[in-house]
Predict the structure.
Amino acid sequence: MYFEKIKGQNFAKKYLTNSIKSNMVSHAYMFEGPNGIGKNTMARELAAILLEMENLFNSPDYIEIKPDGNSIKIAQIRKLQSDILVKPYKSYKIYVIDEAQKMTVEAQNALLKTLEEPPKYAIIILITNNKESLLDTIKSRCEIIKFTPIPMQEVASYLTVNGIDSKRASLLANFSRGSMKKAIELSESEEFHLMREEVQKYVETFLNGNLIEIMDIQSSIEKYKDQITNILDLLINYFRDIMMVKENVDNSMIINLDRLIFVKNMSNKTTYSQLSKIIDIIEETKNKLRSNCNFNISIQVMTLNIYEVIK
């Protein structure tokens, strides 16, 4: 059975397995979906099967192309075009272009010529988290395989099997948003643990309703500027859990289950309506920051708006 090591992605596994068995492997694939959900692993597994090799990086017939700085440049594609003319040692030459959405327009146009008339032995796999950044002519010449987030239960199960406490595994699985790679990274991250401790203090400060202390949160959050999405997601998860407790849902629905006593204590300090408004405020802040709004102003407005809800 092929692709057994890869979690989730049942459609992709079945599709590629059928292609291999029927000897109808395409000359060009596009693996599209969020980061950390198995696209690169799948590309390497496919290459290992076709090249009949365990250690791909010992094979001259397997080449990975990654961004040079912030982009994949035309010179890198020119090098591919030169190399692809050399016949393989076995049946295939396989090229994996990682973060393909970072190809410059010139690089994409150069690659297009190869995609139009590839050698029979060539397979090109484009890995991307945003296919809309690629030319329509590129997409039209690839078989696009959509990769989806891995189910949270599967992520949690994997972490538990690998020694993570079940409550913590559930939290990490939820926070990973279906990315096994992110879940593993978070499980090993001391910074994430410290961030979570600090966010819990923010929640308590907000719900105590002291304006001076609430305004201090802004300067505290500033040190996490590079991790602001994680900080805001942690905040949302806590307020969501407090809302769930007020609704008397089953404990299995609680993300921060290992902090259940804290969550229950906080639920006595606010109303369901206030919690709903707070979550909306934080989501709006996330959207502003994605749109490159000023960081300090966005966080300041968020803290003041939450205070207005709580006071």
